[in-house]
Write a structure and sequence with these properties.
Length: 262
């Protein structure tokens, strides 16, 4: 029996899920999600412990950990990734990645059609990403990137010829921009579906769009050493941008880029 622990804290919402793998069968045995503005650091591990206890499991029962790499809040991503690395190192298990925007999209796996996730990138920007969902699955169509809301909305308006269901915490600020630009093609999902859930972080992890992927971690644990996993930020942090301005050059970030590479 194999147990997978997956979580994400890249938004102001924490989502945690635990799945059991028995042969070819995967079952979600525990899941939770809750709002935690500026509180993920203090709430992620206690909530994980409670979820394990409710499932009748101990930390030593976990076979692999999967974590949301972003993009999202830099602080939230760092908290989640650092926590996951600590857990995986301490338990001696592999660490896999999952995409935060993917985890939002997977909440709509039973929808047939386009789903546009609009993540809040702060600084007046968003993380726009399109997915095609059908038959219980969601396929990501875009690379992760950051853009001004109007630029992202106009790009979608220029290329999309079918309806798109919008979700993501960026809509709290910019829903009117996307609705006004896309017109009748756009519909807005209920706000409670704009962030990952415990079930959807598991779905995103099993989808295998991030490296090290969960499939590789399960098949070859050595390929998913916790030290190999990096966050996905898509751009420099404020500190790095300030450094670049002072130095007149862009410093190496040491984190994964839009395509998951370094």
């Amino acid at each position: 029996m194999t147990y997978v622990l997956a979580f994400d804290a890249a938004t102001e919402h924490v989502a945690i899920g635990i799945a059991r793998i028995d042969g070819e069968t995967r079952t979600t045995i525990a899941a939770t999600d809750f709002s935690a503005p500026r509180a993920a650091l203090g709430r992620l591990l206690p909530a994980t412990r409670v979820l394990l206890e409710d499932a009748g499991l101990a930390p030593r029962d976990i076979s692999v950990v999967a974590v949301g790499r972003g993009p999202g809040s830099f602080t939230g991503v760092r908290i989640a990734v650092a926590t996951a690395k600590g857990l995986a190192h301490g338990l001696g298990v592999p660490l896999a990645g999952l995409g935060t925007l993917d985890a939002v999209a997977w909440r709509f796996r039973d929808v047939t059609g386009l789903v546009g996730v609009v993540g809040d990138a702060m600084r007046g920007e968003v993380y726009p990403c399109l997915f095609r969902c059908a038959d219980g699955r969601c396929e990501r169509l875009d690379e992760y990137h950051v853009a001004k809301p109007i630029v992202a909305a106009e790009a979608w308006a220029a290329t999309l010829t079918e309806p798109v269901l919008l979700a993501g915490n960026g809509l709290a600020k910019y829903a009117e921009v996307f609705e006004g630009t896309l017109g009748a093609r756009a519909s807005i999902a209920p706000e409670e579906l704009w962030t990952p859930s415990g079930e959807s972080v598991l779905d995103a992890a099993f989808a295998g769009h991030q490296e090290p992927s969960l499939a590789h971690a399960l098949a070859d644990p050595a390929s998913a050493d916790p030290g190999l996993l990096l966050p996905v930020y898509t751009r420099l942090s404020d500190a790095e941008e300030d450094e670049a301005k002072r130095a007149g050059a862009v410093p190496p970030t040491g984190v994964a880029g839009p395509d998951g590479g370094v």
